[in-house]
Amino acid sequence: MIKGRTDAPRDRGWLVGIIFFILGLGTLLPWNFFMTASMYFNRRLNKTEYVNGTAVALKEYYFNNWMTLLSQLPLLLCTLLNSFFYQRISEMVRLAGSLVFILILFILTAVLVKVPMEEDHFFSVTMATIWFINCFVAVLQGSLFGLVGQLPQKYSAVFMSGQGLAGSFAAIAMLISIASKTDHETAALGYFITPCVGTLITLLCYLLLPRLEFAQFYLNKSKSYEVETTDELLKESGTGGNDDPNIQVNGSLPDCDDVVEDNTAPNSTQAFLTLEQVEARDKKSSVKEVFKKIWVMAFCVTFVFTVTLALFPAVTVDVKTIYPGNWELYFIPVCCFLLFNLGDWIGRSVTSIVQWPPKDSLLFPVLVVCRVVFVPLLLLCNVQPRSYLPVFFEYDATFIIIMALFSLSSGYCVCLSMSYAPQLVAPKDAETAGALMTFFLALGLSVGAAFSFVLRLVV
């Protein structure tokens, strides 16, 4: 029987893997670097004056609250729109265009560091920048999840690992800002030049991807397969026409599985595909049909992020150390932000080696739901101030252990969910599955952020 191409080329130097790692890193740079620079924004917006020797804020802008709201809302809305309308816009426009606009908005933010502006105007421009940059991030992230879903599973894990490392960059930047002796303006300028360079590198990596043979094989697999099958069938016919009595074509080329190997059989079945059958086979499934196949993974990624965002950073950032002194200054940057982001990154990276439970096991959603145990565990740590619950885990070491398990399980479960979803559908529907999963990822972020206000009040 004639077979299509099955010998995939090698990923030389693992270059495609490195590119998808960088692409994953680039998708979460905007959110993390804006969050890291919150000290700069608050300092620039919240001007104070002294009344009877006491510093009084002239106007409170609540930057952190508005930044969270105007990050998650467009992410959720644009991810939903991308899930339904992405097929009408080419992949190159969605991905390269999003990266270009993100780069422009980062450059604008960096320039504004040196531009004096009234607080109200600066706040408005910054909020608009955050809104639009997260719109493009939503399109970029959804499209990349669909793209990486067409490659072997380990590349999805690598992509998610890159996303996890973006948070570690933000945490390290926070530590550097604390230890730095430079002025606040120079530090802020450094913050925003870094993601500008990172986004530019991400764009160049994406433009390089289609030129690599390994990426071409998987991302254009169906097209390459049809062309090769056509050539082989023409060679088999001997004349380049339709001379073989056992191969009949009606408006299309025959599928390789329909070609009969034994041409000497007197009563060989004459199989063919009509043009309508070929179109039906290659037509992408509807969003509803794809959702029916991946709804379990959609629930898992939503629940994981709901639990994670409900606690981090709204609750965990208020945990206090019992050791006063210089350690008090570095406790939250190290034990909250850096520890969480490193644990999340390690959890995502482990999935490139171990994928357990398997995608068709009921144990996986059960384990995801069991992560709710971290809610009481972290609420009972030394969160201050508190009004209702007692402190049960007072020591720093206990908090560190809980945070390590919390972050590792978050990264691991999220990465498995996002990796498994494209495997539950046909290759032609992998991008749709990726776009849908990105929407439910954003939904989990939004629901978790809403629950964080409730949990903080409970303490």
From TrEMBL:
Keyword Oxidoreductase set for record: no
SUPFAM superfamilies: MFS general substrate transporter
An annotated Gene Ontology molecular function: uridine transmembrane transporter activity
Compartments where found: Basolateral cell membrane
A GO cellular component entry from the record: basolateral plasma membrane
Alphabetized UniProt keyword annotations: Membrane, Transmembrane, Transmembrane helix, Transport
Species assigned in the record: Umbra pygmaea
Record Gene3D superfamilies: MFS general substrate transporter like domains
Transmembrane segments: 12-34, 66-86, 93-113, 125-148, 155-176, 188-209, 294-317, 329-350, 362-379, 399-421, 433-455
Family: Belongs to the SLC29A/ENT transporter (TC 2.A.57) family.
Native organism taxonomy: Eukaryota, Metazoa, Chordata, Craniata, Vertebrata
Primary site of residence: membrane
Name of the protein described by the UniProt record: Equilibrative nucleoside transporter 2
Membrane topology: Multi-pass membrane protein
Short name of one Pfam family: Nucleoside_tran
